[in-house]
Amino acid sequence: MSKIIIPTPLRKFTNNQTTLETSADTVLEVIRELTIKYPDLKNQIIDKQGGIRKYIRIYLDDTDIKTLDQEKTEVSAGSVVSIIPAIAGGNIT
Amino acid sequence: MKKLKIYPLVIETIENHALETYPEECCGFLYGTEGDVREISHAGKATNIKSENKRKRFEIDPLEYLQAEKYAMANNLELLGIYHSHPDHPAVPSEHDLKQAAGYFSYIIVSVRKNKINNIQSWQLNDQQEFEEEEILDLIHVKVNS
């Protein structure tokens, strides 16, 4: 089994679950499994084209899946998949 | 209006961080507990990883964000928001803040003008994805401007 960390802003879509366990083999399957279990989470993570939303990062342990095999990245037992909202902003001008 | 209690040490951390980085923007994490009144009891500094235009923009490293979530879990706290500074601008969210804002989080903004703390305000997204101000209870500015 591997672990999924749900970030605080998305926990209202997972019945306040902080972490979840999964036996999925790839990041894509993890997300699919997660969004089937918690349908309201889908719009928060997946865009209209079916990809990961622009302001969401997915990490496998300490590595961005963008630098691995994207959604096809394999998830091995004991690893941690983290959903991370991109945090940025700035002042008015 | 939602209510927010911020511990004095948190205010001190935010104000000092904002002055240290002025005229560039600072940013960091807010931890605490949720209830009828949200209580922010801890603040943690983050690095503004923007490579340019730090006077007007901030960005937090996703790994640093992940560490913040883990810190909250390990310390029986909740990651409840983000703080950042607006050098020489009001403590009001900008379009850039709105574009990447996450629901549920409190966004504390500290306005710094000419190297002095101007004011602090806190904001949260409502269901219409608009920022609404949160009422900060008993706000005490710890940093004394000279």
Quick tags:
heterodimer, A: 93 residues, alpha+beta, Ubiquitin-like (UB roll), 5-stranded mixed sheet, 2 helices, 6 strands, 27% strand, globular, B: 146 residues, alpha/beta, Cytidine Deaminase, domain 2, 7-stranded mixed beta barrel, 8 strands
Task: Please give a structural write-up.
The complex is a heterodimer of chains A (93) and B (146). With 93 residues, chain A is of the alpha+beta class. Chain A is built from two helices and six strands, in the order ββααββββ. Chain A has one domain: Beta-grasp domain (Ubiquitin-like (UB roll), Roll). A five-stranded mixed β-sheet of chain A has the order 2-1-5-3-4, with helices on one face. In chain A, strand 3 and strand 4 form a beta hairpin. Chain A is globular and about 45 Å long. By secondary structure, chain B is of the alpha/beta class. Chain B has a single domain, classed as Cytidine Deaminase, domain 2, CATH 3.40.140.10. Chain B has three helices and eight strands, in the order βαβββαβαβββ. The longest helix of chain B has 14 residues. The mean pLDDT of chain B is 93. At the A-B interface, strand 5 and strand 6 of A face strand 4, helix 2, strand 5 and helix 3 of B. Strand 6 of chain A pairs antiparallel with strand 4 of chain B.
